[in-house]
Amino acid sequence: MGRRLEKLFHIQEQNSTIRTEVVAGVTSFMTVAYIIAVNGAILSTTGMPYEAATIVTVICSFVGCMLMALWANSPLIIIPGMGDNAFFVFTLVFSLGLTWQQALAAVFLAGIVFMLTTVTKGADYLLRSIPKSMINAMTAGIGLFIAFLGLKNGGIIVASKGTFVTLANLSDPYALTTILTLLVLLPLFMLNVKGSFLIAIIAGTGMGTLFGIVDFSTLRDFSISFTGYGELFFALDFSGIGTLNFWTAVFSLSMVIIFQNMGAQLGMLPDKSKFRKSFQANSFSVISAGLLGCSPTTTAAESGTGIAAGGRTGLTSFTTGLLFIPALFLIPLFKVIPNSAIAPVLIIVGCLMIQCIKEIPFSDFTEAFPAYLMMAIMPLSFSIANGIAFGFIAYPILKLISGRKKEVSITMYVIAFFFLLYFILGSI
Predict the structure, then answer these.
(1) Which of 43, 254, 269, 311 could lock onto 306 through a cystine, CB 3.0 to 4.6 A?
(2) CB of 268 within 8 A of CB of 275?
(3) Is residue 381's pLDDT more than 70?
(4) Same domain (yes/no): 235, 111
(5) Is 153 inside a domain boundary?
(6) 74 and 115 part of one domain
(7) Are residue 263 and residue 389 in the same domain, yes or no?
């Protein structure tokens, strides 16, 4: 078995081990397993059957992870994205007025556009045309986004009517569990203890039990019915193809998934030489999501947890993908794990990612301000795509104002124009 895995994933070449990769895969799964329970609930608001939407979430996560593992040998994790499912529901269906079947057709076509970018020289051309300050800002911004997600989910940062967000009462059991779990995780992580993230998640669940924030009522029912999934499979409807709203949906969705995933992958991939195939795997997964009956799949920001745990090859994503299948029947068990047990992992991963901020030339305001804007907008708007859009629009504007327009590639001007159009169309 070991030889087969080595031949398939070239683990030793990446200075890793089978054990490290498997632990990294389990760690990634623990941080993204919430999508199984959450995505179906969000998609069901469009009229999709809840159980069918839950089943397709698992199927698409499995397919995405397998594509990433076997095609790209990449440790990144592919799941239906939280921002993407909201875009699918609230923009494509509720705002643009598409049926969920027509929205699936839009997902499929956006996936085709994404795929054409990855299999041609489009992706390489984009990489050469995007300034390094923008790429580093994407990484740092995603780090801030992940950290904010951890602080929010862990109950440390809460909503406030007066200031939008504020520090929670730290004696609150959710916040207290997060803080204590972080105190357990920090020394384990700094001492390079293998499986430190998993140990902390288990410890956090135990502490959450003591503080009474773990709900064991979900363990009463482990049943699931596959009846109804046929309503989603190949349900995409192209009847709206002649309407402006349909193509607005395809265009805006294409912009979001291409640049959101480019930013996430460039920010997290340990080996950037795997980017092209990893990007391709991502595009194929979006196409399959449209066919299978799901909102767009995306490179999960939580992939960083597996990478931080030592994941370097496709065995990490392969392990995560395999775990999605039995997890479908164990949803109540994973619901037991409180967000407070997972939040400290996200907080530490955010710190690791933000370190590339030192590569941004802050002495040059035309480089610094777009990067700063990108990093600020991502967590504050709770959207990686919005942050990238603001940064890409600001960059050419500042270069033009300063009389340095020659430093901006034609591609950057085009991207800025389309992101501006994306915001205009999104506000109609």
Answers:
(1) 311
(2) no
(3) yes
(4) yes
(5) no
(6) yes
(7) no
Residue 151 tokens, joined = 């602080």
**In the numeric block, which tokens belong to residue 96?**
């643009």
pLDDT score of 377: 94
Nearest to 20 by CA among 270, 204, 206: 270
- DSSP result, 40-71: HHHHGGGT--HHHHHHHHHHHHHHHHHHHHHT
Examine the domain organization and report whether 104 and 190 are in the same domain.
Answer: yes
Give yes or no: residues 387 and 287 share one domain. no
Cα 24 from Cα 36, distance rounded (Å) = 19
Instruction: Report which secondary-structure segment, H or E, holds 8.
Output: helix 2-9
Q: What is the pLDDT of residue 415?
A: 84
What does 232-294 look like in DSSP terms, one character per residue? Answer: TTT----TTTTSHHHHHHHHHHHHHHHHHHHHHHHHH-SSGGGHHHHHHHHHHHHHHHHHHT-
Tell me the CB-side half-sphere exposure of residue 145, using CA atoms within 13 A.
28
Q: And the tokens for 194?
A: 């293998």
What are residue 164's DSSP bridge partners? 160
Decide if pLDDT at 427 tops 80: no
HSE of 103, CA atoms in CB hemisphere, 13 A: 26
The residues facing 158 across adjacent strands are 166
Domain carrying residue 236: 2-132+177-336
pLDDT, one tens digit per residue, over 198-227 is: 888 889 999 999 999 998 887 777 777 777
As a whole number, the mean pLDDT across the chain is 89
Q: Which of 233, 263, 247 is nearest to 123 (CA)?
A: 263
| φ/ψ of residue 386, rounded to 5 | -65, -40
- Number of Cα atoms under 13 Å in the Cβ half of residue 71: 20
Identify the top-confidence range among 334-343, 351-360, 365-374.
365-374
Q: What is the pTM of this model?
A: 0.75
Is residue 184 domain-shared with residue 311, that is, in the same domain?
yes
What number is the average pLDDT over the span 158-184?
A: 95
Please give the backbone phi and psi of residue 111, each rounded to the nearest 5 degrees, phi first: -65, -35
